[in-house]
Amino acid sequence: MPELSYYSVIIFITWLTLLVMTVLVQENDRLDKQNKRLFYIVYFIIGVSSLCEWTGVFLSGNLNFPSWMLQAVKTGDYILTPCAAIVVIAQTRKIKAFTYTVASLLAVNTIFQIVTAFTGGMIKIDEFNRYSHGPLYPIYMVFYSVLIILFITGFVIYSKDFRKRNRTSLYAIMIFIVLGIILQEFTSSDIRTAYLVLAISMPFLFIHFNEFSQMRIDDEIKHKDYEIMVSQIKPHFLFNSLSVIRELYEEDVEAGDHALTDFSQFLRYNLDSLSKERMISFSEEMENIKRYLELQQLRFGDSLKVTYDLESIDFKVPVFSIQPIVENAVAHGARKRTDKQGHVTISSKEYPDRYEIKIVDNGPGFVPEDVEKETTNGHIGIKNVCERLDLAENGDLIIDSKLGEGTTATLIFPKGA
Fold this sequence. Notes:
Elements: H1 2-27, H2 33-59, H3 67-90, H4 99-117, E1 123-125, E2 131-133, H5 137-159, H6 167-185, H7 194-232, H8 235-251, H9 253-272, E3 279-281, H10 282-300, E4 304-310, E5 316-318, H11 323-331, E6 342-350, E7 354-361, H12 371-374, H13 380-392, E8 396-402, E9 406-414
Parallel strand pairs: 4-6
Antiparallel strand pairs: 1-2, 3-5, 6-7, 7-9, 8-9
Helix pairs in contact: 1-2, 1-7, 2-3, 2-7, 3-4, 3-5, 5-6, 6-7, 7-13, 8-9, 9-10
């Protein structure tokens, strides 16, 4: 059977593609369990649907099998084939806009196929065990056409999540799938391309889905950058710094000039950081942190001591990942001491597999049960650093605090991340 040999190759390529895509989804750490489950369902339905169609081709004209088997397989084919096309849209997670409509249509089709299986309305089988379309087949094609329209509608809705320049390729995928389905369903029955184009389109959609996920992550990181930047430049810090600089000018013009330079460079760095690359050198970040701490020491004098123990500075860190921790060490740690002997230590060290930065303060500390509270109420800088490190998949923050002993914040940056 030439048709069977040809279609066996088509189905083999289809299943192989779905298998590879299953492995890719399983290995993708950016996909949560819900998204992975959705991908698996899509691939499973396409695989089972294509198996039904292949089995129908195998049984057609084969007198070694009873006709009811061919009838059952083709009924399953006509039930699952519309589902296979629609679950592709479900993969985009935008089908919710017309979930009930689609679900109702698929349910009606299932009932229609089961009922007509006993009457021969959809499928006619001759004495040679070959099937052909029954008198009710045009009704099925109208139904299938409606689903194709919904399929296209779902793609258009999904495309709105992308920038305009990213939509052309998405529409090309849609046209590719639709043409493959039309080529099979609306032309000669010997042309079987629907499942092949569905399988081939899976990697394309997977790429688009990941692109959208990365775009969302990038947007969230930019938003976190802005929040952190705003949290760092609080009005009271600006007013207090300017007041200290004014007093310095009254006593020592040169010291006032130096403080004003630090202040302006600190502001410029924070504003410019919004447009910087995601990763910056730790040495560059430390220069700005030192400016911030010098301004704080001008304000608080001997009640704030700072120690640096930087064994390694030649590595990259995410922008705005260090400064918020230092600010909290000053404001909520060292400055909370009643004896005015606040002390902040910043150290860095290189290990074979990572770099570690420690920010230690001798403040009042807090109990472990309050760590989550400390990072959600008021300490927006720490909260955003944690979220930003998670989004960037580059580093970790560990906070250890003991009442009466102070707090240690450890930032860990794996090498090669």
